[in-house]
Design a protein that fits this description.
With about 300 residues, this protein is an alpha/beta fold. It is about 50% helix and about 15% strand. The chain contains twelve helices and eight strands. The radius of gyration is 21 Å and the shape is elongated. The termini are close together. About 45% of the residues are buried. The structure holds guanosine-5'-diphosphate. The site of guanosine-5'-diphosphate has 19 residues, from helix 6. Its main location: membrane. It catalyses: GTP + H2O = GDP + phosphate + H(+). It comes from Sulfuritalea hydrogenivorans sk43H. Keywords: Cell membrane, Cytoplasm, GTP-binding, Hydrolase, Membrane, Nucleotide-binding, Receptor.
Length: about 300
């Protein structure tokens, strides 16, 4: 879509300007492949995914007897699609009432904003939503969620102070009593330097399980695309602590590092449930491989 294209414009520029030059050259040679490698690395695809893509391209050149660089463009598009396709697994919040989604991420990743967008997303599917303000460390986060809930007719369970696990526990009981469809449970953000301090959110996870034997049904990690290659470490660290089942990748609109999805696909594959392409309430989209690759290269 045009909106996604506009959202991804910085990564698109980073890729397209050099690619246009590359693909208009006279022949496919080592120089061209080296420059292609640099271009992919510049868009933060990471060494692993970049090498995988180049190997795919070389194999295609041989197999299909490609002769001109122009023919490489569609091979690159196809390679990226193959790489990213496993990440396309849209979230279906069905089969449990309430369907409990736990949301984690480091401070500033876009967690609070994404929770608002997610609530809107589920409401637009006709589902009732309840928010648990489990980030009890930051009064501002709680106030932000509560105000947002009031404006949008979404109940927010919050406590002045105290244990995030207790807030989430209360929220799940409230949601059951009120027959709510989806619970979005915020957790306290961690600073990027405090990734080892994850016991707290691991505890929230255990409490959810206790309150609602089958839950959480989704553990979403919110990642800021601007962190580029560091995303891989973050996914691994959170996964170890809480068992990540899906990703929300935010701020793709403000960064040239959209290639980070390729790195994730190779190094720590998890379903990319949603991508954030702006600050507005509607700027959250389900991740679709075809659309995404088209927006980057098309
Ligand atoms: P939290 O600390 O993880 O809860 O982060 P916030 O939700 O408060 O977001 C931090 C900043 O990032 C805010 O200024 C948001 O408006 C902004 N933000 C969040 N998601 C996006 C996005 O997809 N695109 C852009 N451009 N900004 C975003």
């Amino acid at each position: 879509s045009e909106r996604l294209k506009a959202g991804l414009s910085r990564t698109r520029e980073t890729l397209n300007t050099p690619l246009t030059e590359l693909f208009s050259r006279a022949k496919i040679d080592d120089d061209l492949l080296d420059d292609l490698e640099t271009t992919l690395l510049t868009a933060d695809c990471g060494v692993d995914a970049t090498h995988w893509l180049l190997a795919e391209l070389k194999a295609t050149v041989k197999r299909d007897r490609l002769e001109t660089p122009a023919q490489l463009r569609s091979a690159l598009t196809q390679g990226l699609r193959t790489l990213l396709a496993p990440l396309e697994q849209p979230l279906q919040a069905e089969g449990h009432q309430p369907f409990v989604i736990m949301i984690a991420g480091v401070n500033g990743a876009g967690k609070t904003t994404s929770i608002g967008k997610l609530a809107k997303h589920f409401q637009s599917q006709g589902k009732s939503v309840l928010l648990a303000a489990g980030d009890t460390f930051r009064a501002a986060a709680r106030e932000q969620l509560t105000a947002w809930g009031e404006r949008n007719g979404v109940t927010v369970i919050a406590q002045e102070s105290g244990d995030p696990a207790a807030v989430v526990f209360d929220a799940i009981h409230a949601a059951r009593a009120r027959k709510i469809d989806v619970v979005l449970a915020d957790t306290a953000g961690r600073l990027p330097t405090q990734l080892h301090l994850m016991e707290e959110i691991a505890k929230v996870r255990r409490v959810i399980q206790k309150a609602h034997d089958t839950g959480p049904h989704e553990v979403l990690l919110v990642l800021d695309a601007n962190i580029g290659q560091n995303a891989v470490q973050q996914v691994k660290a959170f996964d170890k602590a809480i068992g990540v089942t899906g990703l929300v990748i935010t701020k793709l609109d403000g960064t040239a590092k959209g290639g980070v999805l390729a790195a994730i696909a190779r190094q720590c594959p998890k379903p990319v449930r949603f991508i954030g392409v702006g600050e507005g309430i509607d700027d959250l989209q389900a991740f679709r491989t075809g659309e995404f690759v088209e927006a980057l290269l098309g």
